Amino acid sequence: MRAVVAGLLLAAAAAIAQGKFADLTASDQVRLNKQRAVVLSELARRYGAQRLTGAPSDLPLLQRLVDDNVFGKTQTWELQALGVAFGDVLANDLGMRWVVVTDEYGTDPTLRYRDTSIQVNALTMISNRIEDGKPVDLEDIRQGVRREIDRILKSGDYK
Is the pLDDT of residue 4 over 80? Predict the structure, then answer.
């Protein structure tokens, strides 16, 4: 799992050399909020959860949605909604924030580490794994992202 997370972050850090960051637009914020609402609605309906805090304490609830296969591998938008909720945890836990990045792949929401070129594509972290039939352990991914950011910062391999 560590190698997968490392590869995603390294690719992201390298790709950003051609990309440009910008603040979320109002429509980006609406999209992310709609996706958060989808996740919260499922959590409330299935498990009685009333809110998400964006803290690591959200991970067991999000993991339950994953483990219970609430969203199937063809439900990309909903799986990306899980990525938004997971991204909120990463943002609060690791000092990141939601922005949009425009690069050779288009313009998409991403998490940016402070004002560096380091980005984490939380939106697709869960959906890509589920669509590829790979296991998803959100705590393991969170710890892997933390380790990789620390490694990149120590290496100086970013802008």
Answer: no
Question: CB neighbours (10 Å) of residue 118?
Answer: 23
CB–CB of 82/62 below 8 Å?
Answer: yes
Q: Which amino acid is at 49?
A: A
Q: State if pTM tops 0.85.
A: yes
The tally of domains found in the chain comes to: 1
Of 126, 154, 108, nearest to 15 by C-alpha is 108
18-29 per-position pLDDT tens digit: 589 999 999 999
Q: What is the pLDDT of residues 81-129, one digit of tens each?
A: 999 999 999 999 999 999 999 988 899 999 999 999 999 999 999 999 9
Question: CATH number for the domain including 16?
Answer: 1.20.120.1090
Sign of the CA dihedral with 150 first, then 33, 74, and 55 last: positive
| Contact between 87 and 122 (Cβ < 8 Å) | yes
Number of helices (H), then strands (E), in the chain: 6, 4
Q: To 5 degrees, how large is the angle CA 112–CA 114–CA 115? A: 90
- The identity of residue 12, as a single letter, is A
146 by Cβ neighbours in 10 Å (0-12 / 13-18 / 19+) ranks as middle
The parent domain of residue 82 ranges over 2-155
